[in-house]
Structures are given as structure tokens and as C-alpha cells.
User: Fold this.
Amino acid sequence: MVPKANEQSRMISFFNCVATLMQSNLLELFKESLLEYKNFICMKMEAKHRPKFIVKFISRHNQLLPVPSFEEWEYGVLGVVDMLVEVSNSFPRMEAKIFGDWDTQEGTPAPGTTLKPTIDPAEVQTIKTEITNSFREQTKGPMAYVEVYNQHSFLFEGDNEDTMDVFIIEERTWDQMVEQVIKFHNLSQDMGTTFEPKTLIGIFDIHCDDLIRNLGNKASELRDKFLDKMIHTLHVQLKE
Assistant:
């Protein structure tokens, strides 16, 4: 039974008992949430409940890069654990909710007005380590998947106009230039059908549609540059 307002000592004892019970429940809820989150990230749940982190691959500086990077995703994934700890340490005691012992301007609790669940930092760090190891292991799948694009790595060099120009002006016979035109034309046409624009690998939803489109455009650009070179060569020969 709730003590009367003038029974200060009993009132303090009552709220301390309530706080102890709330802290116990809060700690249990925290541990269950942390375990569920670990299982969620480590793919120990049913497929329909697994995460899907969208990662786009782009070509930049002559290499394939994931966007956002896996490091950025990892930082965000581990940040959820830190957020769980922070939130669990910010729950107000019952008397704080009743009497409003909060800083209304800052929206923060006054000293002694929050519950203090006994969260073990070592236990939290163990969970974070398991999540980190699982996450990093799962990044290997997407990186292996995009290795297939490396067979067209010469198209990545198209990001550098100087490199492309050097490739174009190399000495070639007429037949060799025809071969290059056919090669890059076929490549530009086949790029969209050879590769899957989207695929799910573990916890990552891989999007390569922009990459495929850009590589196709680079192939078309190289084809057109070789056609321009052929036309120029033909004009020079006709003038001779």
C-alpha cells in the first residue's frame, strides 16, 4: 500500500523498493533485447526476420567501393548496442515521473532520479565482439560477389580521362580498331543482361544497378571514341 504523503521515511522506502523491482525488470529486458539484437545481426533468426543492409557498389579511383562503406555500417550496428545501454541507464524512477524531478529545459534527469540497472560492461563488450566478428565475416560474401566485375577493370580506368586518352591513342591497325569498336559495343549491350543489378547476400542487399549502368556507359564512350578515331584516320587517308 502506498504510504501517505506525510510519512516521509516510509515513502522513501516504498520508492526504493519500487526502484529495485523496476531495475531488476529493466536489466532483464536489457539483456533480452541485447541477445535478440545479437541474434538479429548474426543471422540466428528466421529468414523473414533477418536484416537487409543496402550497399551500393560504385567504381571510383580504379576500384570498386561499397557505399555506405562496411566500416560505416559496422559503426552504426555497434552504435545500437551503445544506445541500448544509454537508454537503459536513463529510465526515470517512479518518484521522478510523479514529482517531475527532471530538467525541463534540457530534457535530462536530475541527479538520483534515474534507475541504475547493474549492466556488466564486460558482458556488453562480449556481445559487441561477437557482433563485430559476425558482421566482418559476412562482408566477405559481397566482396567475393563483386570480384566478377574485375574482368572489366579496364572500364574503371575510364574514371581517369588521361588514362582513357592514352588507351585510345595507342597505335592500332584499322582491323584492330574495328575489333575494339565491336568489343565495346557488345560489352555496352551485354552489361545489363550479364550481371544481376540486385542480390541478397547474408545481411547485405547488394545494389549494382548504378555500377552496371556506368560501366555500360563507359563501354559506349570507348566505342564512340574509337569510331571518332577511325573517322579521323579515314579523313587523313583520303587527303593523302
Summary: The mean pLDDT is 84.
